[in-house]
Amino acid sequence: MRNTSRLRPIFLTFEQWLPRWSLQHRLCCSKPVSVHSNEQSRADKFKTQIATGPRFHDFVKGASINKQQPVITDDLIDTDKHAYLPEDSEIGNSRTVCFETYGCQMNVNDTEIAWSILQKKGYQRTSDVAEADVVLLVTCSIREKAEQTIWNRLRQLTAMKKRRLKTRVPMKIGVLGCMAERLKSELLEREKLLDVLAGPDAYRDLPRLLSVAHGGQQASNVLLSLEETYADVMPVHHSPQGLSAFVSIMRGCDNMCSYCIVPFTRGRERSRPVSSILEEVHILSEQGVKEVTMLGQNVNSYRDTSEEQFCSSEPGQLSRGFRTVYRARPGGLRFADLLDRVSLIDPDMRIRFTSPHPKDFPDEVLQLIKERANICKQVHLPAQSGSSTVLQAMRRGYSREAYLELVDNIKTIIPGVSLSSDFISGFCGETEEDHLQTLSLIREVRYNVGFLFAYSMRKKTHAFHRLQDDVPAEVKQRRLEELIGMFREEATKVNSALIGSTQLVLVEGESKRSAQDLCGRNDGNVKVIFPRQEVAGQPTDTGTDTSPVNPGDYVLVKIESANSQSLRGHALSHTSLSDSATRLPDHRHDGQLASVARHGI
C-alpha cells in the first residue's frame, strides 16, 4: 500500500483557500488596512482604467448621455434592429431558401409562417436543395423515428455543403420547430451539423439568426413564449393549386398527457385573436381557397381573451365524464363561437379542424357541426387506448366508458358522422388484456380513418420520469400490426356498404395512378377516384350543357366500388356546397367511410 502520511488534505476551509491579501480586503471595515505598495499601485491603475473606459451607454445604439433628459429615438425602440449588426444585414439579398417539412400539419403551417417572414426580407424560395443558399428543416420530435429521419438528412446535407464549390455562396443549414427546442446542445455542440437553430416561437428572429450565420457563426433561439401566436404574420400558403389551406388558431398544449413531448417543445397553450383568424379566412376565400382546416395542438380548447368583452367568470364546458389535469379557466371566446363565425364567411368553403381533444366537445359544438352545411361532418376523436387502466396511466382524463358515451352522443346529434382516431400500441404497462380492449373499441366505434403508432418514450415527459417502458419492441410491433389489421377489416366492411350511394366530392386534381382519373375527398375526408370526363352543369341550370371537371370543383359522385383506402365511382354533375345541402340533404349520411394511415413503425 502507498504511504499516505505525507498526503495533504484536499478539502480546505474557506479561510485556508483564499489568499491572505484577499481576506484582508473582504473583511475590511472603516479602519484602513495596510497592503504592499506594489499591490496598491496595481489597484490604483485598475481603478483608473475602469474610470476612463467605456460606459453602458456606449454599448446601446442611439443612447443619450444626457442623464436629465434622455432622448428616445425610433431606432432605439425598433425591436427589429440590432446595434451589433450592419443596417442591411438582415436583408436576404435574393438568397435562396429551401424548406423541407416533416411531421404534422402544424409544421406545414410553421413553414408558411417562416417563409412569410423571410420573403419580406428579400429571400427567394426554391425547391431545389442543390441550388439553395439556405436549407431549413421544419422538424418533428414526437417519436424517435421522426428524429432519426432528421439526423440522417442533416448528415446528407452536411456532405453536400462540404462538396459545394468555394466560388459559390456557402450553404447554411438550419433546423426549425420541435426538434430544435428539444435537442439544442446535441445539434449545435456535439454534432456541429448546423448553422441556425430556431424553436417554434422564434421564427420572427430568423432574419437575424441567418445574418449571424452568414457571418460565419452558429446562431440559435429556442426560447418558448407565453404569448406568441404570430397573429400579425400572414402565412404564405404553398398547397398545390391553392385549393386548401391550414389556419393556425392556437399554439401549445396544457394537457400534459404522460406520453407527449408537445408541451415541452411548443410551450403553454395560448389562442390567436379571433379578429386575426377571421381576416386570414376572408383573404383565403377571396383567393379561391375551397377548404380551410383550423389547426391547434388542442384545437377545440380555443379560448380568446384578447378583448375585454370576451372575458367573463363562466368556466368552459367539458364533455360529460371528462376532466383536465389543470384548473378550468373562466372567460374567453370559445371554440364554438369561433367555428360559428368562420363558417359564415363563405358558404361554399369547407371547414375542418384538427387536432381536438375528446374532453372539449360540449353539445354546442356538436349542434353547430350538424347545422352548418360547410362544416364537415367528420370528427377526429383521439382515443389512444381502449383500456381504462392504460388511459389513466396516459393521464388522458377519461375512461373507456366515458369515451364510448361521447361517441354515442356525437352519433346521436350528427347522424352518419365520420369518426377518425389516434392509437398508441405498447404503452408503459400495457397488457394483452389492455390490447384486446383497444381492438374491441375499434370494432365497436367503427372509425373512418386511424393513425396508429408504436409507443416511443420521449425525455422530459411524465412517462419518462415516472413509468417504465416495459413492453418489448417486438410485442409493440405485433400489437401495432394487429391494430392495423383490425382497422382494415372494419374499413372494408364499412366502405363496401357505401356502394350505390352518392358523395359530394371536392376535386383535388389528377389521380397519381392514372392520368385518365381525377380524385378528391368527400365530407369524411376519404379519397374518391372517378374517370376524367365532362359532366352536366349544376341541376339548377337550364338545358343539357356539359363541362369539364377541374380542380376546385364540387361534383356529385356515384360510388361503384370500395376498399379500405378509397372509393371509386363516376361523376354525375357539378354542384356547390350550398346547393347540395338543399337538394341532397342526406348525401353525407349514407354511412361511414373507413381507411387507415400507418405511422411510427
TrEMBL record:
Keyword field contains Metal-binding: yes
Cofactor: [4Fe-4S] cluster
A Pfam family that the UniProt record links to this protein: TRAM
SUPFAM superfamilies in UniProt: Radical SAM enzymes
GO BP: regulation of protein metabolic process
Signal peptide coordinates: none
Top-level division of the source organism's lineage: Eukaryota
Name under which the protein is recorded: Mitochondrial tRNA methylthiotransferase CDK5RAP1
Record domain MTTase N-terminal: where: 95-215
UniProt-listed NCBIfam families: miaB-methiolase (TIGR01574), MiaB/RimO family radical SAM methylthiotransferase (TIGR00089)
Entry's Gene Ontology molecular function annotations: 4 iron, 4 sulfur cluster binding; metal ion binding; tRNA-2-methylthio-N(6)-dimethylallyladenosine(37) synthase activity
CDD domains with a match to the protein in the record: Radical_SAM
Gene it is expressed from: cdk5rap1
Keywords per UniProt: 4Fe-4S, Iron, Iron-sulfur, Metal-binding, S-adenosyl-L-methionine
PROSITE patterns on file: MTTASE_N, MTTASE_RADICAL, RADICAL_SAM, TRAM
Residue intervals of the TRAM domain: 496-573
Its EC number(s): 2.8.4.3
Family from the record: Belongs to the methylthiotransferase family. MiaB subfamily.
GO CC terms in record: cytosol; mitochondrion
